[in-house]
Amino acid sequence: MSKILETGFVQGFIRMADDGWKQGWHERNGGNLSYRMKTQEAESVKEYFEPKDWQPIGTSVPKLAKEYFLVTGSGKYFRNVSINPQDSICMIEIDETGENYRIVWGLVNGGRPTSELPSHLMNHEVKMAASGGKHRVIYHAHTANTIALTFVLPLEDRIFTRELWEMATECPVVFPDGIGVVPWMVPGGRDIAVATSELMKKYDVAVWAHHGMFVSGEDFDLTFGLMHTVEKSAEILVKMLSMRPDKLQTISPQNFRDLAADFHVNLPEEFLYEK
Ligand code: 13P
Ligand code: ZN
């Protein structure tokens, strides 16, 4: 048991959960985190596995057959992950059909993986293919400023992307592909998982209206940094809108094009419309 907790990827996972808690993004059991383990990482901890019964995932992820994931538990609090990880998180294995999972380690006092497992796994499947296997982390958080914006901005990808890009010069460099928006839907099921994973084909960020955000990334630093950057931009927009509804000056479409050229990023013209 202690050996598993000392492993680099488990330590990274725990630190990220703790960082999210410190940001105030995880009231009660809000939010969830998953990490697709490398083959050698799974091999290095296999001796500690105690497999439980197979359970249906609730959706189908055939490309993730036989993969192992480290996942937060449903109803578990991010604030407890660092002090009691074996109670709060678990490792799961996906079967050869991609229809079922089983817990192989963790959740020592019972429980099951996050209720958002269908969304996490469908996002993993899409991002693994889109990134050539590089993306390994999917993170869901209840980020207050981004949620607040879903009450006052039209729920359109092009509006959220452009407004958040304008709030901080680094934003288009950090998320050049933009942001997708899922209208309000019942969380925890297959339908919202399908809608989110559809957006994840194009973006690394999906906002869930009146709920929170999903982000995807290659490692813990990049994925946490992406959530942090989007939420900070949303905070600036909330502050700006609170001061006055319009802007005296801002970053123009041509400014974005100049930035894209110097920073060697591609900024799609669909987000550089004249207002
Ligand atoms: P879980 O506790 O099941 O992970 O649910 C938290 C959450 O944020 C649901 O969207
Ligand atoms: Zn949530």
Structural notes for this entry:
It is a single chain. This protein is an alpha+beta fold and 275 residues long. Helices cover 42% and strands 16% of the residues. It is built from twelve helices and nine strands. It has helices at residues 2-6, 8-22, 39-45, 78-81, 85-88, 117-130, 144-149, 157-166, 171-174, 190-200, 220-243, 253-263; strands spanning 32-36, 55-56, 68-72, 89-94, 100-106, 137-141, 180-182, 205-208, 212-217. It has a nine-stranded mixed β-sheet with strand order 2-5-4-3-1-6-9-8-7, sandwiched between helices. Strand 7 (180-182), helix 10 and strand 8 form a beta-alpha-beta unit. It is elongated, with a radius of gyration of 19 Å. The protein starts with a helix and ends in a 12-residue tail after the last helix. 41% of the residues are buried. The structure holds 1,3-dihydroxyacetonephosphate and zinc ion. 1,3-dihydroxyacetonephosphate binds next to loops.
Count of β-strands? 9
Q: What structural class should be given to the helix and strand makeup?
A: alpha+beta
Q: Strands of the largest sheet, in order across it? A: 2-5-4-3-1-6-9-8-7
Question: What's the gyration radius in Å?
Answer: 19 Å
Strand content: 15-25%
H/E topology pattern: HHEHEEHHEEHEHHHEHEEHH
Oligomer: single chain
Assign a percent range to the helix content: 40-55%
**Overall 3D form:** elongated
Count up the helices: 12
Average predicted local confidence, pLDDT: 98
Key words describing this protein structure:
binds 1,3-dihydroxyacetonephosphate; alpha+beta; 275 residues; single chain; 42% helix; 9 strands; 12 helices; binds zinc ion; elongated; 9-stranded mixed beta sheet
